[in-house]
Amino acid sequence: MKRFRLYIDESGDHTYRDLNNPARRYLGLTGAMVETEVYRTRLHPDLEGLKQRHFPHDPDHPLVLHRNDILNKRGAFSSLGDPAKEAAFNKDFLGFLTAQDYRLITVVIDKNAHEEQYGAAAWHPYHFCLVVLLERYCGYLSLVKARGDVMVESRGGTEDMELKRAYQEVWASGTLHRAAGFFQQALTSKEIKLAKKQANIAGLQIADLLAHPIKQEILISDGVAGVT
Hints:
This protein is α/β, with parallel strands linked by helices. Helices cover 51% and strands 16% of the residues. The mean pLDDT is 93.
């Protein structure tokens, strides 16, 4: 039986503050789903090779791709200030994404609409998106007769504990649309895995780089005003 892992990262703010600001009103969660053997033999080593070609570094001190650092050409990515090097990296990274075997799931929530509809009963935006992602992920695993687990970028002590509880609740009780058995049959663990950005997890780096542009594409395609 094949095993998969879903790597999740967010784009946007996960609070209910300043919802009139389009930059804060929408939260997107993107999951990159990869079969573990493909990840081990292709995706991870190919990404490491790409990083060494464009940003040579000591393997004992891994380089972590981070969207904000790349966009702002900070630190190890300062070489991207050269337009030719930036173009070469962008071309190679897009080629890497095209060549790899993975699937993406993205959920975007309009926090303003959600709060207006549910009031005090409104879900935590991040947890709401996580539940929807898990329903889709487990649906795919069931379809292909596989099992898998989930890894999320750690966001800090209290938030991590709340996220663990949200995941465990889905495992133990299911959701409005799916019974607990649906998740327990597909998922290999009742615990969600958490990892720091510095841990150099290839799947989390891909989710980090793609979460924002995918969210923006969805909002633009839906005609949301103020999105650039």
